[in-house]
Amino acid sequence: MTSISDLEQRLRDALDTSRRNRDGDRTKLLTTLLSDVKNRAIETRGTLDEADVVAVLARAHGQRVEAARQMNEAGRRDLAEKEEAQARVIEEFLPPPLAEEDVRRRVRELVAEGVDQMGPLMGRLMPELRGRFDGGEASRIVREELQG
């Protein structure tokens, strides 16, 4: 028997609730997210842990945010609002975002531990940030801290 993460169980419980409430949009989104989680487990040929499920949700969130941006640029506010609403639902399941200063402090801690190269530092940092902070911004912070 495979065990599922707490986050995956929360998604399943939310799906059951949305079905009971006959909330079609939320039900469709949660079904899609759980399908993404299942597909990722198949890809990795294993059971996903909490961080893996967060990564799947973070990717789905990023896709919705980017789609909303593109829809706004194309003048399709109606479609942008739909994407933004989906992003807000996904945010309910993601861990709280980290502030830039929290990331900067963690980078300084890792440098103090002797990790002073970009690649190894990012390798240690990103698993802690996944789903909580943008990777591009983290890279910028690491570069600034290593130069400064």
Order of helix and strand elements from N to C terminus: HHHHHHH
CATH third-tier fold name of the largest domain: Hypothetical Protein Yqey, Chain: A, domain1
In terms of structural class, how would the helical and strand content be classed?
mainly alpha
Low-confidence stretches: none
The whole-angstrom Rg is 18 Å
Query: Describe the biggest sheet?
Result: none
Task: Describe the 3D structure.
- The chain is mainly α and 148 residues long.
- It has 2 domains: 6-91, Hypothetical Protein Yqey, Chain: A, domain1 (Orthogonal Bundle), CATH 1.10.1510; 100-147.
- It has helices at 6-20, 24-44, 50-73, 77-91, 100-112, 118-129, 135-147.
- The longest helix has 24 residues, at 50-73.
- The mean pLDDT is 92.
Give a summary of the structure in a few sentences.
By secondary structure, the protein is mainly alpha-helical. The chain has helices spanning 6-20, 24-44, 50-73, 77-91, 100-112, 118-129, 135-147.
SSE layout and pairings?
Blueprint: H1 6-20, H2 24-44, H3 50-73, H4 77-91, H5 100-112, H6 118-129, H7 135-147
Quick tags:
148 residues; mainly alpha; Hypothetical Protein Yqey, Chain: A, domain1; 0% strand; globular
